[in-house]
Design goal:
By secondary structure, the chain is of the alpha/beta class. It has 2 domains: about 120 residues, Rossmann fold; about 100 residues, Winged helix-like DNA-binding domain superfamily/Winged helix DNA-binding domain (Arc Repressor Mutant, subunit A), CATH 1.10.10.10. It is built from 8 helices and 14 strands. β10 and β11 form a beta hairpin. The longest helix is centred in the C-terminal third of the chain and has 15 residues. The relative contact order is 0.09.
């Protein structure tokens, strides 16, 4: 499994951020270390398995700039600085070292997740093929193709957008309101709650082996839906 490395020495931040990353990127393993020495040692051993590094600047035994320098000199892994040091000098230094983004604390969780996804896409490291339903369903994001047992499934633009929303949030419960926010603009008009019900039903009919007992898009009663 590919890994996201979090280099941060504040325990509460590590706890909360690790939870957010696990919920938002369930296909990746989240690894956290607290210092410069441990971060470099980890990269020496596991750099090939790591897809992204999130670095604080002030660390228990050094700084994030040294870690970034090591990563950029030895790998092509994208780096995002997450730090309370939002002064111009720190920002410019981080970007000049090759960091892909620089996000000041405190940050908004959804914005952070969005910017991580953007960095992974630009770096060509975002997961482009998802295999679901015990290997029976394949979503090739790079080609915009959905296959069930090798046969292509044709989806409308709104159905495909809805599927991508679930795929990008695997393991997370998505409320009906959050789904409506994601897809309304694709249809070119307001999508109401009844329309969402219809499109989820259509999507299940195309994706599920047994739409009456869905395995891919499950209903979480009273809360919304979740893609396993």
């Amino acid at each position: 499994m590919q890994k996201i490395l979090l280099v941060e020495d504040e325990r509460e931040i590590v706890k909360n951020l690790s939870r957010l990353l696990k919920e938002s990127f369930p296909s990746y393993e989240i690894i956290s270390v607290s210092g410069q020495k441990d971060a470099i040692a980890y990269m020496e051993e596991h750099g090939m398995e790591t897809i992204l590094a999130l670095l604080d600047i002030s660390l228990s035994d050094g700084n994030g700039f040294a870690v970034c320098s090591f990563i950029k000199n030895n790998t092509d892994i994208p780096v995002i600085f997450l730090t309370a040091s939002a002064d111009e000098y720190s920002t410019v230094t981080g970007l000049d070292m090759g960091a892909e983004d620089y996000i000041a604390k405190p940050f908004r969780p959804r914005e952070l997740v969005s910017r991580i996804k953007s960095v992974l896409r630009r770096a060509g490291k975002a997961q482009s093929v998802l295999v679901l339903d015990e290997g029976k369903l394949t979503l090739d994001i790079s080609r915009g193709v959905v296959l069930r047992e090798g046969q292509e499934i044709f989806l409308s633009a709104l159905e495909y957008k809805l599927l991508l929303t679930f795929a990008n949030n695997r393991g997370r419960i998505l409320s009906r309101n959050s789904l409506l926010e994601e897809i309304w603009d694709v249809a070119g008009e307001f999508v109401n709650d009844n329309t969402l019900t219809v499109y989820i039903k259509r999507l299940r009919e195309k994706l599920e082996e047994n739409p009456g007992e869905p395995r891919v898009i499950k209903t979480v009663r009273g809360l919304g839906y979740r893609m396993e």
